[in-house]
Amino acid sequence: MNKNPKIAVFGGGSWATAIVKMLCENLEQVGWYMRNQSAIDYIKENEHNPNYISSAEFNVNQLNLSSDINKMVKYADILIFAIPSAFVKAELDKIKVDLSSKIVFSAIKGIIPESGLIVGEHFNKKLNIPIENIGVITGPCHAEEVAMERLSYLTIACQDEAKAKILGDCISSNYIKTKISDDIIGTEYAAMLKNIYAIAAGIAHGLGYGDNFQSVLMSNSIREMKRFIKKIHKMKRNINNSAYLGDLLVTGYSIFSRNRMFGNMIGKGYTVKSAMMEMSMIAEGYYAAKSAYLLNEKNNVNTPIINAVYQILYENKNPKTVFKNLTELID
Amino acid sequence: MNKNPKIAVFGGGSWATAIVKMLCENLEQVGWYMRNQSAIDYIKENEHNPNYISSAEFNVNQLNLSSDINKMVKYADILIFAIPSAFVKAELDKIKVDLSSKIVFSAIKGIIPESGLIVGEHFNKKLNIPIENIGVITGPCHAEEVAMERLSYLTIACQDEAKAKILGDCISSNYIKTKISDDIIGTEYAAMLKNIYAIAAGIAHGLGYGDNFQSVLMSNSIREMKRFIKKIHKMKRNINNSAYLGDLLVTGYSIFSRNRMFGNMIGKGYTVKSAMMEMSMIAEGYYAAKSAYLLNEKNNVNTPIINAVYQILYENKNPKTVFKNLTELID
């Protein structure tokens, strides 16, 4: 592969915007697809995204912006997808260009509802992209802090570590450090599951549980995550590495976490519907809770926290009662 | 051992006060030693500790208060020590009563400076208390939240688990859940080390690092803690259990943590001396950093975070420079 590859980011949200910013530190040209043409027009005129982390400023001459996904796929050697998992399928369905020679990285934290697969698996099984051309970009990293250029560590996973290394070099800068991993399955599941645990943390907070309980909840969450991922893809991994534990913590503890915020509203008594209406962003964990719960019906791993979140979000159970029960199931 | 043992708490600080409160939920009489007679007089009159978690109210008829440590040692079958590690030796030196038949629990998070031993080891090696009569009470648990009766999980460790169980039953209540462990060495070291990592988290915050970095720091801290403890006492333990990871998180992330606050002041530019003067409570991690660093000189475990805190607190190195260097040593 070319050491100076053409890279394009697909998505118009916070995380997509943050990744474009990282790439602009190193590349002369960065492709950026978003479906919203008016946002593109706004960026061209005002040099920042109108809707997400708008304090991140761009030199528009570096940006190759387009709302034509096929044009962007054609342009790029490396495609980075950062679209909410619920909308990925609809976007992928638009693609008519052959993807088999492309390198595709997922920066999406979730399961594609239509296929029940994580994004990497979906690319491999549904779009026939060879597994060695599929990778994952994962945190711990709130996009908001990338905008502020606060030091962040990303993990780039790919079974072909040379490809991970190339992308890592393209996004490293004085405020981004990158680490390479070969665990594409585990890092992607971790990125999905942590959003469920962040919702749980938010619910607990909303119900009035304190810091002592939160720490127990997070300690149980990482053990649950380890069991869940081990069942799906057993390999040697240190679950306490930044891509797993760090990602859980930044989401579970940070005020920037929309999943935690969503959970907090649920805990305070909002209905799921009203909490979703109040928030202008999508809480990925809402979809992840369902996907993980359904997936686990056959895997049968002990997942009391995922079960609790599922019961509250999808079975209309009372958060207070569910959490009272949960406190007996964790330690 | 008697199933209804006489229990006394030694210490007048937040954590001692919280443990007395927990015991009062179950016992008719709780012994409480503190050296400050005027605080005892105040409690008898006002039904709360004047200096620490003063919102915790007591029925003084339940309390057997005394500033005579020998009287209290004589009274009790189970002694719970919750005195800052720097002052333990001076208090223990006052004891003339034979301790060999007593059961002694440590609720202290630190190393006794004079002996360089954690409290359990000190009891065993210096006071000849049999190892099966020594135990540890550990969090994650901020005393402030016990005062508010917020649900908290404690771990009670003793090689003789029956003894841990008895004490566990005495402190369990509708807001305290207890878990039994046989890892007295590991839980006690974890309780000590977490304060150093909380200082590191505070320094990072004070220097302007954000949530993304904090999560990486915590993820590295738990791995460092695991290495450190494994070297000292190798046994099967899950470092992600609440007594280890939970305790680290509650201290590293909570606004109630005085160690984090102390670190924050250092990061913001206070000298060690002025930060200590500003705070009315002792940051245990200050002493722990020195003890852990010295201990590790012979163990030679890779501990970049402990080293960084030590350099700042004891070698007068610039926090900004030390942390800039630390960012290269963690991932």
From TrEMBL, chains A, B:
NAD(+) binds at residues 87, 143, 258. It comes from the Bacteria. Signal peptide: none annotated. Substrate binds at residues 109, 258-259. It is an enzyme of class 1 (oxidoreductase). GO terms for biological process: carbohydrate metabolic process; glycerol-3-phosphate catabolic process; phospholipid biosynthetic process. One of its GO terms (molecular function) is NAD binding. Its EC number is 1.1.1.94. The active site is at 194 (proton acceptor). Residues 183-323 form the Glycerol-3-phosphate dehydrogenase NAD-dependent C-terminal domain. Keywords: Lipid biosynthesis, Lipid metabolism, NAD, Oxidoreductase, Phospholipid biosynthesis, Phospholipid metabolism. It catalyses: sn-glycerol 3-phosphate + NADP(+) = dihydroxyacetone phosphate + NADPH + H(+). SUPFAM superfamilies: 6-phosphogluconate dehydrogenase C-terminal domain-like, NAD(P)-binding Rossmann-fold domains. Residues 6-163 form the Glycerol-3-phosphate dehydrogenase NAD-dependent N-terminal domain. GO terms for cellular component: cytosol. Belongs to the NAD-dependent glycerol-3-phosphate dehydrogenase family. This is Glycerol-3-phosphate dehydrogenase.
